[in-house]
């Protein structure tokens, strides 16, 4: 989401700029949502925890982005928790102040609309992938989508992003390695047969 300098100045003026280290919690599921949160730098993971204590990853938000704006507007509790996946810079804006200074500005209205639409598209994609595809196909899709920079992701990162456990991912990586599709160097994946991965994905979708 592109943020013009004059809007950033406004948000800085009416909000509170804070820095967070990696693994810091921004809010917990069930906490009252009373502030608009604008992510300026870094990546934030939204997740839920089920009754068995299992973590279900919902979204990975990257700067610049609003975080969980819908429950703030509706006066609800946060439906998920948020943790910093990297060092982050965030602006917190009290909702009353946000309404007073921002809601009459059509540029901010458009930003919110784009932000919500992007989240809806992501949610639809995530639901489709998690219900239609098994772990293997989610991994194949992730490898293809991020082929240009796949070595930047640790196996722990990939497990989070495709909603599986590190143990299950490790077993699947071994299968793909045994089939000659990928290899690993110091734990990082390197694709060996891009065409075979694409063919497998196309056949699954068809």
Please give the structural blueprint:
Blueprint: H1 5-14, E1 16-20, E2 25-27, E3 35-41, E4 43-49, E5 55-62, E6 65-67, H2 69-74, E7 81-84, E8 88-94, H3 95-102, H4 106-132, H5 135-145, H6 155-161, H7 166-178, E9 182-185, E10 188-191, H8 194-205
Helix pairs in contact: 5-8, 6-7
Protein traits:
4-stranded antiparallel β-sheet, 8 helices, 206 residues, alpha+beta
Q: Would you give an account of this structure?
A:
With about 210 residues, the chain is α+β, with helices and mostly antiparallel strands. The protein is built from 8 helices and 10 strands. The longest helix is centred in the middle third of the chain and has 27 residues, at about 105-130. The model has no long low-confidence stretch (mean pLDDT about 90).
Structural class: alpha+beta
Pattern of helices and strands: HEEEEEEHEEHHHHHEEH
* Strand tally: 10
Q: Strand order within the widest sheet?
A: 1-8-3-6
Low-confidence stretches: none
User: Per DSSP, what share of the residues sits in E-state strands of 2 or more residues?
Assistant: 25-35%
Query: Please, how many helices?
Result: 8
Radius of gyration: 19 Å
Helicity level, as a percent range?
40-55%
- Main sheet makeup: 4 strands, antiparallel
Mean pLDDT across all residues, rounded? 89
